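Subject: Predicted fold for 1,4-beta-glucanase, 731 residues

User T.R. writes:
Posting the sequence so we have a shared reference for the thread.
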Amino acid sequence: MFASRLSRRTVLAGTVAAAAIAALPPLEGRAQAADDVTAPTYRWRNAVIGGTGFITGVLFHPSVRGLAYARTDIGGAYRWDDRAARWIPLIDHLGWDDWNLLGVEAMAVDPAHPDRLYLALGTYAQSWAGNGAVLRSDDRGATWARADLGVKLGANEDGRGMGERLLVDPRDRDTLWLGTRHDGLLKSRDRGATWAAASGFPGVPSASGQGVTLLVAAGRTLYAGWGDGDGSSTNLFRTADGERWEAVPGQPTGVSAKVPVRAAYDGHARELYVSYADAPGPNGQSDGSVHKLGTATGTWTDVTPVVPGGSDAFGYGGVAVDARRAGTVVVSTNNRWADVDTLFRTTDGGRSWTSLKDAAVFDVSETPYLDWGDDKPKFGWWIQAVAVDPYDSRHVVYGTGATLYGTRDLTHWAPWIRGLEEASVVQLVSPPVGEAHLLSGSRDIGVMYHERLTASPARGMATNPVFGSATGLAQAAGRPAYVVRTGWGDHGNGAYSNDGGRTWAPFAAQPSIAHDAPGPIAASADGGVLLWSFVHWDGTKYPAHRSDDNGTTWTEISSFPKGATPVADPADPTLFYAYDTDTGKVLASTDSGRTFTERVSGLPSGDSQFKLVAAPGRSGDLWLSAKENGLYRSTDGGATFSKVDSCRASYTLGFGKAADGADFPAIYQVGSTEAVTAVYRSDDGAKSWVRINDDRHQWGWIGETIVGDPRVYGRVYLATNGRGIQYGEPV
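User M.O. replies:
I've generated the structure tokens; pasting them so everyone works from the same file.
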């Protein structure tokens, strides 16, 4: 994605002192176990935005017209349904405990068996992340068999646009190869059911390197790229029999050929094309090249379209051959900011190249956010995934850090993205009135106003100013036309709206720390007071500030806990609350946020992911999601809290329209009543819960935020970390 993402699901179970728990009487009634209640049937769909993330790989099936697959860094894999003309998500069944498997490191198909598909999964290779896994399917991803690995993969780390690192051996369709970052080359002889280190492979793994960067078959010979060299050592190996590996003779060396990024084989001309860069990317590349190897002659030829240099620094990324025409190849630049990235195309084996950017005409009307706030859509950045349709030479596609573009005539380009949603969502607001039922805030694409749930927001990203990533989004409960937002931006970090989020204006001023550490924000019930908290991306916390003149002036609040999320009382504009996750204390302000005093202590502490929310329309009705410690409630503005014994764990919680005849809003929760972490609804004030998602709809880590629709009973909006905004409705 545009910004490097750390895990959003590092679980640190806080501890509540026994004396504190004893002092908190339980609420009346116990919940029924989820399986004791007749669960409603829900239909789950994406609120459409379109793309919004890094497409790291695209693969047309060589034997089936119209069949293609795409992989993403944090949002799973997709199959193109040519009849429905949309992408179908393939691994939404992976749940809470498998959050690390939503990143797809590599994928592979079997040309001789069109229904077979393989995915190598694992988002992070860090010590705090779990090991990777390989999924194998005999029905194009409709169902899966799984093999857990003893090694880690890194689909959202540097080098995630390289590959593919997974390959079906053309000499034996039951044999698969998997390149890893830190554990060398793995081999499976039973179609991915079991894996072991490949004997004879000469690469020596490094704890900090890239390991195997690509695997490709050229006829019956396999080639493997190696990313741990220094530019003067071997970085491309081959084997003719699957047992003995050797360095490819005569291969290019030097900084511009330090890391082999991608490779593609032109079977007509018997030439292997390899793109290189001086770093794995997608960031940090400043040099690169493209070379081809005549596999029959052993001759290498430098066919670099444009040599990087001076202010025009970049690497090369994707490379794809035209299966129908010998010598026709497309390559991409990557990390080219001065002259902007492009695709180069040759029809004569690399003797001459044409930049497709120069004549490109873009139509982003289906996904207006790609305007990026102006009327000249960029060709894109982070271009490492490139593919040419083997059944249509003029159907070329390429992935970027935000979308997947496609063309049918090499000139007119449009997002080829319908059904593919990869936003990492952090903020959701469902207004009680107005045109839009949903406002959202995400990493990488800022804030959006959703006029419709079935089409990408017509206004695109909120502008004036544009935020790369949102950190705060709040609506005045008693004045819903007034909305504020905060986030990472180059031209201001806070803005307000007086029309429900349709249009925006920047705050007239902002605290100096706002540029480097924008955090969450709250608006009083009448919109007269703003509280803005500040947290740097590295976790450093700073004093919050207050404004009572719509952001014209700001005053530091020394008594507010640093880094806490401010919570406005929805009924009384003089009341604000804060939960100090470091100490397990709830503080409150009765003077419109000027000063805060402690209300209660002894609550769970030690994790910034604890969440305090206020029930709508009620003063002082506070709910605390404390992860594995469960759910707590206060009905006296935080003076006392009672543990809700109806759920074992609570990660995030929100409210929606009450059921007919109910005297309390519907409550929606990501948590667990027994063993299963899932999405639940309660219509009786948390006395009982029903699960409303199912095993096919789990989406990995979903603990950021959830909110019900205050106007539509049963409708709920759920933020995911890589599968966009999911919304569910009873059917």
